[in-house]
Amino acid sequence: MPMPRSTVNFVPSSLGFLLNDISRTFRRHFDVKMAEYGLTQAQWRALLIMATREGCTQRELSDALDVQPISIARLLDRMVKGGWVKREPCPNDRRAHRLYLTSQCDPILEVAKAASQEILGRAYQGISDAELAQLLATLERIKNNLDQTS
């Protein structure tokens, strides 16, 4: 039986709604800026993980991004086809592949990094360094709290 509307605490300005709106807005701005390169924000996140965890497996990547392996497979297929990523067989697990960024990816990473910094710069306008540091620390604490309870 659905809850009566009067008992639902629906607050569009609550933390969850704001974080979702900020994420969606950032993704939209990023996707527009990177459209000419064919890079989406989802691909950017995957490339960042692979850049810091060279040779990770598809499973490790899906765990790091907290998405289903089938979603990562499709994402990787597009990036392999684009020449940004290569898959190499994992020597100790015939079913797994190690993931590596190619040299063709380097210019895309630089452009995407600049686009991200520009969008974040716009987002941080009017926010002091101290306020930003406090916000990030608080959000990190919230994330850790939620990670511990799941």
TrEMBL record:
Alphabetized Pfam families for the sequence: MarR_2
Source domain of life is: Bacteria
What keywords does the record list, in alphabetical order?
DNA-binding, Transcription, Transcription regulation
Keyword Flavoprotein (UniProt): no
Task: Give start-end of the signal peptide.
Answer: none
Cite the InterPro entries for this sequence: HTH_MarR-typ (IPR000835), WH-like_DNA-bd_sf (IPR036388), WH_DNA-bd_sf (IPR036390)
Q: Keyword Transcription on this protein? A: yes
* GO MF, one annotated term: DNA-binding transcription factor activity
> Under which name does UniProt file this protein?
Transcriptional regulator, MarR family
Species annotation: Aequoribacter fuscus
